[in-house]
Write a structure and sequence with these properties.
single chain; 1 helix; mainly beta; two-stranded antiparallel ribbon; about 70 residues
């Protein structure tokens, strides 16, 4: 428990995750394009949806020269 002026914050370690088979890919990993999780952002007390792929790591802006 980390106390602040207006509210308490908790820093946690995730021990287990569970997901239905319908949101897993062929390797058993979560497919976020199917799951589309929701995120909560405290300062504005807003929820945001995720799930759209915008690019692949180490590929965006990559140029090839020969």
């Amino acid at each position: 428990n980390y106390e602040t002026k207006n509210h308490n914050q908790y820093i946690l370690k995730i021990k287990h995750t569970h997901a239905k088979a319908e949101v897993l890919d062929a390797n058993g990993n979560i497919n976020y394009e199917i799951l589309k999780p929701i995120l909560f952002e405290m300062p504005t007390k807003s929820y945001f949806k995720t799930g759209d792929r915008v690019g692949h790591c180490w590929e965006i802006g990559k140029t090839f020269s020969k």
